[in-house]
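Write out structure tokens for DUF4838 domain-containing protein.
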Amino acid sequence: MNKIYRNMNLILFLPLFVALIICRYPIDEKTIQGKNEAKKEINTTDLHYVNIVLENVEGDIVDRAKNIMQRIFEERTEPMGGHSHDKYSFHKNIYLCKDSKLPFDGFKIEKLSDDEIRVTGGGEHGILYGCGKLLRLAEISPRNIIFHDSPEVSAPVKKDRGMYFCVHNYNFSQVAPEDVLIEYLEDLALWGINDCAVIYHKFQYTGLDQPEAKEYLTRLNLILRTAESLGMKTTVFIMANDGFINSPLDLRYKTEIPRNWGTEICPSNPEGMELLKREFEESLLALKPLDQMVMWPYDSGGCGCEKCYPWGSNGYMLLSKEFSKIFHRVFPKGKFYLGTWFFDYNCGNIGDWDALLKKFDNKELDWIDGILADGTYVNGYFPKQVVENKHRIDKPIISFLDISMPQGGPWGGFGSNPMPKHIQEQWNLSKDLIIGGLPYTEGIHEDINKVLWAQLCWDPERNTMDILKEYVSYEFSREHANEITKAIAAIEPSRWRVGKNRVYDFSGSPKVWEELSYYDRTLSWYARNSWRWRQTLLRAKIDAEMALSNGEPTAEVGRAYDELFRINYLDDRALKYIRPYDVIPDPEKGGKALMDLQRGRSITDFCSYSPKEHVDIIDPK
């Protein structure tokens, strides 16, 4: 009883004691305000927060890395439906710092305690890439975040870990909301992508002042500026003798050139050369920032007049040298790469490669900084001429691996197109010859392939299946990563292109669907509703339906196509090459029969496209 009484006295006199202390040592209002602001800054929800501290480093890229991490933590700790009645609480601290002794792009990750971890980079880029690795190692859920470290220094081997966004056809890259596209570029930066390329086309416009052309340039510049803000190099692909749709008829190319738009200009005509040079410089001034450019020879491009032929070794070289002078004048520190796409293929075996190799032998290419070399399913992928003659090429080589089209079209129209086996084969062939590259992409359906490429450039000896497992563990499920990885890899053989022919093998598709549809129910709310998972699951569903229906469209396939249309933010402007089919009732068969309907415009709706067949088609397998 006396003990309780004494405690009551203490309770009664405690407020008076506190008041005396406050009067004697008043608290500064600024201190209170500062503490409240600090509390507001680090609490992302009432239940938990991740506090990211910049220790001895500052800069725009590291600030961006911090913001990207905050975004991803918020996305992945959000409970089902966006709110929770459960009271899970965790407080985590992440420290970002710089150590100039590390490689500039390198990093290490050290766990300080269960709730604290440090990312140290050799520079801002290294810190950004280290943040990506931290996120992939961590176990993130609404209940908790569990850190895992990587204390050994990790640094990239290849200098150019790029990606080429083909911004045309009104695909994802051209029509997705700005914030969605920006976040996608941020996500790629976390995997080590450090070069972002876009294509500049003129054939569908009358000039730079046309409203549609302005809209196109605005999108290209959004991508370039975003890439620059993430520490990436910026690159543009220029179609060699591309002309506007109203280019003068008397200045246009001669003879029939496969895959020309019909607007191309002859550079051997003095007036044509002046027009090309003037429009090229205007284009460069409209596209900023730029660090590099790639000159593009064929598909589209070319002229068959007496002075230009053979194009690859004559007219193309003449024009490229003039463009190189202009590019280096506008961007003195920029790099100019000579493209070799469809050399000795587009117009037949006309000596394109032999002529280029002789120019290397004779030291006539001091005006270029390197070459871009690769092929696609129609002409054998990585050029054998490079493999057999690397000793003659004294300039850097960047690759242009097609990670979008080998499984057929519409590109992205049937969901994700994982190609770990194919990419591994092509990497093994080219990895010792290239400094990196700019794989060809048409949207987001190649998201897995982008990551495989980025991480092969980071560590050339790594296996694509190991990279795929890291992707699955981060994006889908750490617990079931092995099983899901195997199932996703098993998607690859169901569709392929050999030359002009499409080959289908859906025999393994029902098993893939059985696996992925089961694991769909084991994933977190965030993972199973993410577009990455949905486009993968829909691919498995479509292929399985095709196996059961003997290739005939079904209502389930139609619903999957509809969702893919929405995932890619497409609209009625989408060209048929990237637009999922519509599955509708078949009026000829009647009953409940269904048919595929390919909607969307084609290139021939814009210009006089020449779809003449290529020659000398090579079986890539």
